[in-house]
Amino acid sequence: MRYLLLCWFVLAASFSDIVNARHDAELVNWLNQVSATAQQNHNRLLQEAKALKSAVASYCHSQQQDALAAAQNQWRNLMQQWMQVVVLQFGPLMEEDRRLRIQAWPMRPGLMEKQVRRLLKHADSVTLGTIKEASVVVQGLPALEYLLFEKSSPISQVCPVTLAIADHLIEQTGILQKAWTGDFLAEFTESADPAGIENNVDEFLNGLVTALQQISRRKLKDPLQLNLNNKEGKLKELESFYSRNSLTNIRSNVAALDLYLNGGDGYGLDDYQQAVDPEGVTAHLINDQLREIQTSLNGFTQPLESAIGNQKQRRELRKLHQQLVELQFQLESQLFKQLGITRDFNSEDGD
Amino acid sequence: MDLSRRRFIKWTTLSTLPCSWRFADATQQSPTVFSSISTSNDEHWWVCQQFSQDFGPPATLAKIRLPARGHATCVSPSGEKSVLVGRRPATWMVAMERSFDTLRPRWITVQEERHFLGHAVFSQDEKFLYATENSYQEGRGVIGVYRTVDYQRIGELASGGIGPHELRLMPDGKQLMVANGGILTHSSRPREKLNLDRMQPNLSRIELSTGRITGQWYLGDRLLSIRHLDIDAQGDVWVGCQYQATLLDPIPLVARLRRQSNLEVVQATPNQWRKLNGYCGSVACHPALPLVAVSSPRGDHILFWHIDDRELYGMVKIRDVCGIAMPADRAECLASNGKGELYSVSLDKSLEIRLIRHSPLKWDNHLTTA
Fold this sequence. Notes:
With about 350 residues, chain A is mainly α. In chain A, about 70% of the residues lie in helices and about 0% in strands. The model of chain A has no long low-confidence stretch (mean pLDDT about 90). Chain B has 2 domains: about 180 residues, Neuraminidase (6 Propeller); about 110 residues, YVTN repeat-like/Quinoprotein amine dehydrogenase (Methylamine Dehydrogenase, Chain H, 7 Propeller). In chain B, the strands form 7 sheets. In chain B, strands 3-2-1-28 form a 4-stranded antiparallel β-sheet, with no helix packed on it. Chain B has a 4-stranded antiparallel β-sheet with strand order 4-5-6-7, with no helix packed on it. A 4-stranded antiparallel β-sheet of chain B has the order 8-9-10-11, with no helix packed on it. In chain B, strand 1 and strand 2 form a beta hairpin. At the A-B interface, helix 9 of A face strand 24 and strand 28 of B.
């Protein structure tokens, strides 16, 4: 009897090891897909930053309206690519204030404009070095948006400042791209021990949920004042109100969340679910919620900058906000639990 | 322990090489650690665990189920009494005696139109307990006064501001230092901050015998909510702040009140301030060594300053770290996080990190040792 029990324990332990090893192998597949997507997105981000510099240089050279339109359009392209990257709120993006250097947001209305105007006064002497030493407020995309879309200053002042900021963006996106092809990539994908794998999944998913929380709160609830009845939204607190791009930003964020979670045609949450718990519903619930959010986003016919003052649209925006909050809840309560990871506990809603 | 502590302070004063900070093993007690914890099923407990000297598996001395998340534990000077305050806005505190009689925890319910705000402190003679509270109808902070024989509330003092959070008894035992965070909240909208556009945080000193505010200090930026504080071995007060907006460029978040005169920010470079990410979660001064630790769960770092020169001593990276404690007889800082990890950081210049324990339990914001 004693030997039988011993055999049972040995077999049970071996089976548990096999299950854990398989579970880890599936997580590694997922992390590999995430890193492949991240690499692609960071490569594109750098390319778009370089393209923006070229477009701005062409405009400054020709000073023609169509060249300005091309530069504005390229700013939108870069912004959309940035929206694909900024949802990965962990790793190199969070080092050395890189996220803020590329996009200082949200910020107090008027703060960036004031600091950009100060730079414009000394435009002749503004270089990449000036921008690197300046506040993050003028180092990235919001300042470029203001310079390209607001058009209130003479081109002779706008060009040196815009070109210097564009150079700075090339530098910053280059650092990110390098990290995702070098040291950080190795750290993220080549962890051999289970604790390392779990930690990487933990950081990746916590980063996505932080981004999701920022979308629902910073991009919708706060500027639209959705928590206060009968209040009008605050236009200047929207993410990209000069270019009227705020809704497109959210669409790109959600598309990126979907891509990182589900891997597009590659490995993702649905494959993981199928492999470790085919009867489980977590992936279905999360993906249904994502589809609902995307349907809601597609239903808006106006930019957020117009919808903000329309009562009917505000109702729809409130619904969208709730859907995003619900997605966050499902990720935390279903997926995190299934994976045995915890939401960063002390870093949210602190005391 | 007092004798060894005095000897130790004298020794460190003479020493110029902090890398050799070390306590004799014989003087080290087995550390007792208090914290609120949460499980993955959202159950909340107050635990008291005693570790062996080398931090082997702990013995759980007490484990009390809580109605909601707890926040900070305070322990009386003799170690006989301890109280955990619920996370703000809380309606309860819970007390236990040294016998760790878990069958009879004493629950303390908040008075009408008040909420507990997370921290409390015992008087030197242990006859009274002072707790930070929000008088939410009046929109002002108060310090609730409780007699510890039965934990009845016997009065209150004005805190000197809005949203008092952490408080400490000054070494003379006659004055309280209170971090008035400046943030107005109301029970109808529990965790919403209602006055960010007009907040005025301050550090207030209250004379216990009269309730008089005998000193108030402000920092330059009114969005710097003064939230946590501790008192170092020289009697100076260290405060840690939380910036109440998206912090774009790094700013100093830690200040010291030197000899109760000037509240001055301490030294660090912009890159070092970045590691706090606009948010100090806990401040802990070593009772014997000239070091203070400040944790930031949002920045995943603990920064250490030397109390003599306000210079940054060093920093360590620990994910989601918030709870920190400096046991008096050890040259170590204990640190906990929401990932269930408890670390020891050696206080010699290497600041070596050692994982003591990993469990599925999430440690809440504050860690207390006795």
